[in-house]
Amino acid sequence: MLDVQDLQKIYTGRHRNVEALRNLTFHIAEGELVCLVGPSGCGKTTLLKCMAGLLAPTRGEVRLDGRPVAGPPPGMAVVFQEYGRSLFAWMNVRDNVALPLRRKKLGKARERELVDHALEVVGLSDAHEAYPWQLSGGMQQRVAIARAVAYEPKVLLMDEPFAAVDAQTRAELEDLIRKLWHELGVTVLFVTHDIDEAVYLGQRTLILSKSPTVVQEDLTIDLPDERDQLHTRSSPRFAELRAHVYEQIQRAKHHSGDTAPDPVIADRTIEPVLQKTES
Amino acid sequence: MLDVQDLQKIYTGRHRNVEALRNLTFHIAEGELVCLVGPSGCGKTTLLKCMAGLLAPTRGEVRLDGRPVAGPPPGMAVVFQEYGRSLFAWMNVRDNVALPLRRKKLGKARERELVDHALEVVGLSDAHEAYPWQLSGGMQQRVAIARAVAYEPKVLLMDEPFAAVDAQTRAELEDLIRKLWHELGVTVLFVTHDIDEAVYLGQRTLILSKSPTVVQEDLTIDLPDERDQLHTRSSPRFAELRAHVYEQIQRAKHHSGDTAPDPVIADRTIEPVLQKTES
Amino acid sequence: MTSPGLTPVLAEPAGTDSGPGGASARRGPVPVAVLRGLAGLAGLVAVLEVLPHTSLVSADYLPPASETVRTLGTLLAEPTFWTALGDTLTGWGLGLAVAVVAGVAAGVVIGSVPVLRAVTASTIEFLRPIPSVALIPVAVLLYGTDLRSKLLLVVYASFWQVIVQVLAGMQDVDPVAEDTARSYLLGTWGRVRHVLWPTALPYVMTGVRLAATVALILTITAELVIGAPGLGHEIAVAQVSGAVPEVYALVLVTGLLGVAVNLAARAVERRALHWHQSVRREVTA
Amino acid sequence: MTALSVLRRGLLVLGLPAVLFAVWWFATAGSADFYFPPLSTILDSFGKVWTGERLLSDVVPSLLRLAAGYLLAVVVGVGLGLVVGMRRAVRDVLEPVLELFRAIPPPVLIPVIMLFAGIGDTMKVLVIVSGCMWPILLNTVEGVRAVDEVLGDTCRSYGITGVARLRHLVLRAASPQIVTGMRQALSIGIILMVISEMFAASNGLGFTIVQFQRSFAIPEMWSGVLLLGILGFLLSLLFRFAENRALAWYHGLRRAQRNP
Amino acid sequence: AGCGSSSSSSGASASSGGGKTTEVKVGIIPIVDVAPLYLGDKKGFFSSRGIKLKMESAQGGAAIIPGVVSGQFQFGFSNTTSLMLAQTKGVPVKSVVNGAASNGKIGADVTGVAVKKDSSIKSAKDLAGQTVAVNTLQNIGDTTVRESVRKAGGDPSKVKFVEIPFDQMPAALDGGQVDAAWMGEPATTIAKGQGARVIASPFAETDPKLTVATYFTSAKVMQENPDLVKKFSEAMAESLTYASEHPDEARQILTSYTKISGDVLDKLILPSWPAEVDMASLEKLAALGEEDGIFGDKKPDLNALFS
Ligand SMILES: Nc1ncnc2c1ncn2[C@@H]1O[C@H](COP(=O)(O)OP(=O)(O)OP(=O)(O)O)[C@@H](O)[C@H]1O
Ligand SMILES: Nc1ncnc2c1ncn2[C@@H]1O[C@H](COP(=O)(O)OP(=O)(O)OP(=O)(O)O)[C@@H](O)[C@H]1O
Ligand SMILES: [Mg+2]
Ligand SMILES: [Mg+2]
């Protein structure tokens, strides 16, 4: 469904040209849940924006259902990393969530229902009258998530959406995303810095190298589909995968499109690896 | 050194009054490194702002070295949760970091040295000419950290400073903070949502209840002072503390100043607890 | 999912929620502001009262405030004054309304279409500095002393004030907010209405405040020069007759109109921009 | 490539004015109306009137007054705006008084200014200031009030106060809006330059235009109006140039995520 | 509110000129000189001829002449130099009846050059090298002041003129911003009240019968509605005569359209209001204008303009 072909993005500035993405090629099938990790500044946000049709790539292209993405395609929701700035200060929480629904013309009642439900699942039922600037960072971020959830998108791009929420809420939101994904068959691309999350959440994890960025590894997460915070996370396979991703991320800090022209690997690492925490 | 006495903060708005902090009392000794965790929206940022003298509490007071804090005291640096908005869009990275140093009148050379060093330790030596809006989220956050580091404060308040950086960088920055703390004897209050971090980093962890907020627990981290990402994190004591904090945070989501008027406990939980991940 | 801490506190109505340094503004912000404003005006009156008694200027040409106010009192008793005031307010109100509506509409259209913006920029810069006074003969030629000739001048002058502010405001939109709107496919109209317009609103408010006084000034000037009925005409007659206190009394009236306009604008702003940094800081904190 | 983009820009800048001039040209082509002479006549007199010594004797003095008045207005407007914008109490006290003055039309204000400043250039400069100041003042006040609170907190916590705060935070953060005010003020300045020269003047662009108008030299008068427009346009180009340098960060930021 | 009836309807009824009452708009400056118009209106000289007057008072010719030319007003009031100037530039105007004239009294004419009480300027001769305020440059004021200087034996080319509205002149004179000021009424009376001395009376010194201002109309009205022009001229002539004969009534009528009152009203000097223009004085005025070059290289055609 989502095809990224040879994507390159160079930011040109007055004194500073940055090749954020060197050469990215990967494919996300319909209904997949893919996590994206990579060093800070490697171009994850840039990639997401290109995929959302918000940024024109320097070279290469993104295709959605076979059609090149030139502008934001319908049925796609994005949760931005800069959650605070992506909320409209002049609207209260409810309106912020309801706004994208307006043009769907679902009728007042259905719209209300969707908004209420979305706010409830992110734990903000009490705050629907508040304005974004009256909320804490984590609450703002959850409003942005609620907006995407209420929108019922076919494709969901999330850029570090749980960075500002506490561990408990984070776990709940992770399960929420998996539930949505199951129920609605959404295609999800999820950027995160949390390795546990990257392993726990998806079916695949894409690991990017540092900038100029290439895909360093395309890892299939072979955990059972039925996941659960307590048991999945304590399974040996989880620990193995986790350790592997951790190692790859450490490697990514030194590896880039310049240093190693190795082919993109789509393997599944099997050997057990060192664990981060011991029980 | 830092005394929080009976602190209450109520935000009054047009339609919405929120009692963010109910009744907080705790003490941070000179040279301590204290972590602060609590559910999203419980008032951590509010507390930090009150301690930094940026917000007047509704009741109670904050004392620094015995003197009530009325405005921002000298020698204190704050890293804000909204890192993006706390950078000056009209200054490049270097100037952003150098600005607070100016009034210290350290001389050009020393200033330069401090800035270069700070940028280097956060991994941004390459980007010193860039403007904040040309940086990724994690890079922006690291600029804010570099600014605080270069300032060489006596008290350092950090509000989820590593939320936007990758795991590897995060680990490095954690060690950086511990190093600074050791070398310069800074007093640090560190807000985080990452439980591992909360345990790994400090000497004490304050756990706040949900709002209206009280101190739910004041936990001493009895790990050896010499810490190291690999070994500390794999020690059994770490796992115990980690599990305890995790449990407390889950409790905090239901516990508040309203539900349970239990006294503030300053205990150290000794019994082994359930582990989140199994190795 | 459990609800996080959000406990509305209803018991405590008047908080002391002000930042250190921004004290006590909370306890009835309106009366305090009004009192301060009156203090400012009183200061001005005092200066104007004392000035003519100094050697700086003779009371023949700048009458003391007390005399101006006394003259104003007699003016207020005359029905002609009220007709003139009515005429001025009509011209001003209509002209301002037309200018604001046209300025906002044109500004929004031009501001939301980059090509239009590029194409019209030079023309706008060319037309703006053409003084309305140079248009007086044209206005008289077309409409005589009719209300319309007043309107022509008023609209021409205040239109630019609005459009320039609208254009600048629309440019100020946060790229992230803009991206958000685009990714949720808000469409041109949706983006204008929900993103660009609220962003521009603070600028527009300033534009309207500027335009309101420019419109007032042009209304009076048109009346003064062309002789269309209104306060300006009264001023002209008083000037020609050498009735200095009358002139100042009338000028005072125009000044007070300006103050009233500003009060109204501030009231609107408190409502329409309650979410904006500038207002929320002062109202809440 | 670059030649093409220059051409494109030229077309964008000059396209619409060219069309408008063409419309004007044809609409007035055979005009017998005394007050609306054909554009050809106006252009004709433009060449005659504004090329010779008038350039030195009228245009230059006007421009000097304009420059002086405008710069003074910027200083006063920004200075006062900073004070008024940063202190709620000051704003409450001063705003009604300022609004009162703002609403007084220049033609009745000029006599008062004349009482204090005489009839020379000082008076004319002050008249320009008295009108130019307001957009700058109002925009500065609003820009200062809108400074991001996180940035404000950042400065306070790092002890960046006083002049440093003004210079590094307040002025810079408010600069997009201040610049908007200055842009407004530029054209108002030109207008007031004309108005001020209607009183007690013996040279100047405004004086000349008014004299033409009074002596029924209508094509010459229109040519003066045309010159004012051209002047405004040229000054705005100059302004744009300066703005692009001063607000490079702002334009960069605003363009940051737009497609090229 | 606003201006009441729209100009188009009144314009139409005026030009149709039927037997009924026609509304006629006259562009005037609210000064002493137009008192006969108001007085005549009050006395019914106009309504008896089916003319309903509506005065449109403007600040000066800049607004009146375009108004008349475009048909917004049917008649206008203007000083004679301005009319000559307009004619030489091809503005289609035609004077229809006398307006006001110098009263011929040197030292007590309608306009005068005033200086401060303690000024060293004693006569028009001393004006050379001084700054003199006039209300409009290149117009009747400076040409006649130059004539006074010339007659008094001074060098008129050495006089510096600046433009200041009449009402600002007393203040400008008092503040020392100008050395002398050529003022009209009521400024002269006000200045005298503050101690100023009148040292010259340029109108009377140019010609004791100088025709200062007339009422005019546009060529279009002249052609399309000669009947209206005729009636207006007759009514105006009658008003002028009446005003000349009843100066006190003329003085009193000022209170209806100006704010002159009290002492000033009583002391005010009135012009003379003959019913006919004085061609000889106009020729002199035209010659002065030519000499000062205000008509460019053209010559006003006085016969076409004033008869
Ligand atoms: N608007 C811009 N102009 C210039 N360079 C930019 C711009 N945006 C991003 N960059 C550069 O592109 C690179 C990738 O940025 P990007 O935001 O995509 O990183 P990221 O992977 O999202 O990082 P993070 O995890 O820290 O958010 C960085 O080096 C950054 O400096
Ligand atoms: N300016 C404000 N006006 C009104 N209410 C506010 C304001 N700032 C914060 N609050 C409220 O105060 C409470 C605590 O907010 P705070 O930002 O301190 O939480 P936090 O602990 O930092 O949360 P997070 O971890 O999500 O950042 C929240 O309920 C929030 O809605
Ligand atoms: Mg990013
Ligand atoms: Mg927070």
TrEMBL record, chains A, B:
Example of a GO MF term: ATP binding
PROSITE patterns listed in its UniProt record: ABC_TRANSPORTER_1, ABC_TRANSPORTER_2
Gene3D superfamilies: P-loop containing nucleotide triphosphate hydrolases (3.40.50.300)
Superkingdom: Bacteria
Keywords from the UniProt entry: ATP-binding, Nucleotide-binding, Transport
Pfam families to which the protein is assigned, alphabetical: ABC_tran
Disordered: annotated segments: 252-271
InterPro entries according to UniProt: AAA+_ATPase (IPR003593), ABC_transporter-like_ATP-bd (IPR003439), ABC_transporter-like_CS (IPR017871), ABC_transporter_ATP-bind (IPR050166), P-loop_NTPase (IPR027417)
Domain spans labelled ABC transporter: 2-235
Protein name per Swiss-Prot or TrEMBL: NitT/TauT family transport system ATP-binding protein
Species this chain originates from: Streptomyces umbrinus
TrEMBL record, chain C:
Pfam family membership, one: BPD_transp_1
SUPFAM superfamilies: MetI-like
Every ABC transmembrane type-1 domain range: 85-265
Location of this chain's protein in the cell: Cell membrane
Membrane topology of the entry: Multi-pass membrane protein
Entry's transmembrane regions: 92-114, 200-227, 247-265
Keywords: Cell membrane, Membrane, Transmembrane, Transmembrane helix, Transport
Region (Disordered): 1-26
InterPro entries cross-referenced by the UniProt entry: MetI-like, MetI-like_sf
Segment forming the signal sequence: none
Domain of life: Bacteria
First-listed, main subcellular location of the protein, grouped into a coarse class: membrane
PANTHER family (alphabetical): ALKANE SULFONATE ABC TRANSPORTER-RELATED, MEMBRANE SUBUNIT, TAURINE TRANSPORT SYSTEM PERMEASE PROTEIN TAUC
Family in the record: Belongs to the binding-protein-dependent transport system permease family.
Protein name, entry field: ABC-type nitrate/sulfonate/bicarbonate transport system permease component
Source organism of the structure: Streptomyces umbrinus
TrEMBL record, chain D:
Keyword Transmembrane: yes
Record localization: Cell membrane
Matching PROSITE patterns: ABC_TM1
Gene3D superfamilies, alphabetized: MetI-like
Topology of the protein relative to the lipid bilayer: Multi-pass membrane protein
Pfam families assigned: BPD_transp_1
Keyword Lyase: no
Name under which the protein is recorded: ABC-type nitrate/sulfonate/bicarbonate transport system permease component
Organism field: Streptomyces umbrinus
